[in-house]
Amino acid sequence: MAALARVLPHAAGDGDRFRIELPSDLARVGDVVDAACACCFGDGLASRRTRFRLCTVLAEAVANAMLYGNHGDPALVVTIDIAIRDHEVILSISDQGDGFDHTAIPLPIGDESVEATRGRGLYMIHRLAEHVAFNERGNTIWITLPRH
Amino acid sequence: MSFAASQVANHVTVVTVEGQLIVANRQDLKQVVQDALEAGARKFVFDFTRTAYIDSSGLGALVSISKRVREAGGDLRLAGLNEDLRSLFELTKLDTLFAISDTPAEALAGY
Fold it and tell me: What does the alpha-carbon distance between residue A121 and residue A49 come to, in Å, rounded to a whole number?
């Protein structure tokens, strides 16, 4: 929590759960991810692979929420809820947009997709997370990851 | 997170990626390469030895930079990817687009 407070004075939590609310400012994604990672894995037990998975999917989901959910409007907020359990971390990332149909996003796995400069984000989240779910509106994503 | 470009032997420009390559800094990396191209550089090695993670915007930036370098008649090689980053390139099939070496020294030796 101390690491989080250094970069996000408005973050709140009780040690096992914390919430981050931040404006849609892409420049803050890296700091938020680093701080969240420190909170989740402060006990030092996580493997590099686990840290990599959390950092990657969180950066991806937060950027998606800012860019596509809130359309980059700095007046709109992205909310990150993190629940830390013994063996897993559950992330919830919400934006204030209208939501989207995640089933309509094509998988970037064809040969023609290799040279695409976008469209890999959701696929990467699905591949790196243990479990992924969306709310009905499509403006909240829940991501479950191992903790160790 | 930062980038540093330095020219080594054989006119190869080594770009070191510190920290992470993500949506927040991808344009900085593009600019570093663009500046080098305008200065005449054509051979590049991107050193990811000190990179922890890359998001899809970062991967997209690498694809974009690769196209730009090739259009200029140049070549781009990646090096120093840890096991996790290497697996990311494999699951996105980008390992088929980029020449990837285990170490910067190995990439340099290929030129």
Answer: 18
Cα–Cα distance, B102 to B89 (Å, whole number): 13
For chain B, 111 residues long, the average pLDDT of each consecutive 10-residue run is 76 93 94 94 96 95 97 97 96 94 94 88
Chain B neighbors of A120, CB-CB under 8 A? 56, 59-60, 92
Tokens standing for residue A136 = 């009905």
The CA distance from A59 to the nearest CA of chain B, in Å, is 7
Residue whose token pair is 């420049």: A27
- Please state, in angstroms and rounded to a whole number, the distance separating the CA atoms of residues A95 and A105: 18
Q: Which strand (E) or helix (H) includes residue B46?
A: strand B43-47
- Residue B10: which region, alpha, beta or left (left: phi > 0; alpha: psi -120 to 50)? left
Restricting to B residues 45-74, those with a Cβ less than 8 Å away from any Cβ of A are 52-57, 59-61, 63-64, 67
pTM for the whole structure:
0.90
Token pair of B68 as six digits? 């730009």
Q: Within an 8 Å CB–CB cutoff, is residue B19 touching chain A? A: yes
Tell me whether A26 touches chain B (CB under 8 Å): yes
